[in-house]
Write a structure and sequence with these properties.
Layout: H1 16-27, H2 30-33, H3 39-45, H4 49-63, H5 67-70
Helix pairs in contact: 1-4
Length: about 80
């Protein structure tokens, strides 16, 4: 689910919205909060998988030459 931030300054990097949501999802997951694991370990265990797939598709679309016509995936 995309989260929109009104008071936050705009990040110029590609896929920044998906990146921020994936980061927040990992930091708020029970894996990090209760089990005190690192976000990297939780990502490997499969937490926030839908956002991880969306972030991968967004980064992959940057390399796709057809993206010039279709636009980048993600938000």
């Amino acid at each position: 689910m995309p989260k929109y931030y009104e008071d936050k300054e705009e990040d110029g990097r590609a896929c920044s919205g998906v990146r921020e949501d994936l980061r927040q999802c990992l930091l708020e997951s029970p894996c990090v909060l209760r089990e005190n694991k690192s976000p990297k370990q939780c990502l490997r265990e499969g937490h926030c998988m839908s956002l991880q797939v969306t972030f991968f598709a967004c980064k992959r679309s940057m390399l796709d030459t057809r993206a010039r016509f279709r636009g980048r995936k993600g938000y």
